[in-house]
Amino acid sequence: MKILKISAHALSVFLFCTGAHAQGEDYPNHPIRFIVPYAPGAGSDTFARLIADKLGKRLGQTVFVDNRPGSSGNIGADAVFRAAPDGYTLLFTAPGPLVTSQALYSKLTFVPDEFVPISVIATSPSTLVANPKSGIKNLQDLLKAARARPDKLNYSSGGTGSTPHLAAEMFKQLAKVKIFQIPYSGSGPALAAVVSGETDIAFVDLGSVLPFVRKGQLIALGVGSESRKAGLPDVPAIGEVVPGFVSMTWFGMAAPPKTPEHIVNKLSAMVNEILKEPDTMTRLSQMNADPIGGTPADMAKFIRQERERWSTVIRNTGTKLD
Questions:
Q1: DSSP letter string, 21-44
Q2: Cα-based distances in Å from 70 to 38, 61, 108, 112
Q3: 199-255, pLDDT tens digit by residue?
């Protein structure tokens, strides 16, 4: 009798494991949703639609984009955090909810550390630009003017706590200068302000600002990447003049807490394959973005480094959004 009980137990474990394996092999069997916590047309939205289309073809299922803007990306992130951990609702985001929100807000309705990383998709450097009327032609001019006239120069940002704002604050801290912030309601108006001459300088992602630089409407002073970019070979990395400065906008995918490893690994592997496709690389190049990819563990490490970088900036400025 005892032997029969052991056999029955072993059989039940076998059947359970077989069923779980079959369920994993069956993923996905219905459409997948990318929640983008920003408005349509934003950088995250553009990259999400590119990956969604290609991922859907590989998986044989529709992957659609659901925009949930608001509260610096926190509303969309909360929706994913509370979703079933089954791989059918995923977060496609810029750094905010996973990196800076924890330092900017006293209370969050989600725990950034509990999201399951999938992959970093791409990066694009923050680019420091000046309006030609400002008389600033390079980084040395900017530092000289800022030190001679503290808080007389100004910069436009997409709002307090945004990447352009934090990039400018990091620059100020490392360069030991004072430059006054003029916040606007989004990156579009902030860019328009520096193009029109309402503000002297601004940090803008490279893809958005490059057309204005090529037309002579803006002067590129430096890029936030660790090295110079092919699109602006004569423009220095800001770190060449202000050591330690690095500021990149990036886009990545994450899953709700407790999403099974086999689902996460499957998605990560497919994303890495997509990023290696020639037409994907061409499209990213056109957007002046660099493909990244890597494993979920790589993304987890990347996020930790980004949190450390930006939490220091936020702490030093005392910035809070609630």
A1: HHHHHT--SS-EEEEESS-TTSHH
A2: 7, 28, 13, 17
A3: 999 999 898 899 999 999 999 999 999 999 988 999 999 999 999 999 999 999 999
Rounded to whole angstroms, how far apart are CA atoms 191 and 189? 5
Contact 124, 68 (CB under 8 A): no
Domain boundaries, the chain: 9-124+249-317, 125-240
The kind and range of the H/E element at 303 are: helix 296-317
Residue matched to tokens 């620059």: 171
**Distant-in-sequence, close-in-space partners of 262: CB < 8 Å, separation ≥ 6:** 24, 27
The tokens of 138 are what?
């390079």
With CA atoms as reference, report the closest residue to 218 among 125, 127, 286.
Answer: 127
- pTM, two decimal places: 0.85
User: Any idea what DSSP says for residue 237?
Assistant: B
Q: Which fold has domain 9-124+249-317?
A: D-Maltodextrin-Binding Protein; domain 2 (3.40.190)
The alpha helices in 186-260, defined as continuous H runs, are: 187-196, 206-214
CATH class of this structure's domain 125-240: alpha beta
Burial 288-299 (b: 16+ CB within 10 A, else e): bbbbbbbbbeeb
For residue range 136-184, list pLDDT tens digits in order: 999 999 999 999 999 999 999 988 888 899 999 999 999 999 999 999 9
CB of 77 closer than 8 Å to CB of 263: no
What count of Cα atoms within 13 Å lies in the side-chain half-sphere of residue 84?
Answer: 5
Q: Which residue has the tokens 């289309």?
A: 53
- Whether the CB-CB separation of 313 and 170 falls below 8 Å is answered with yes
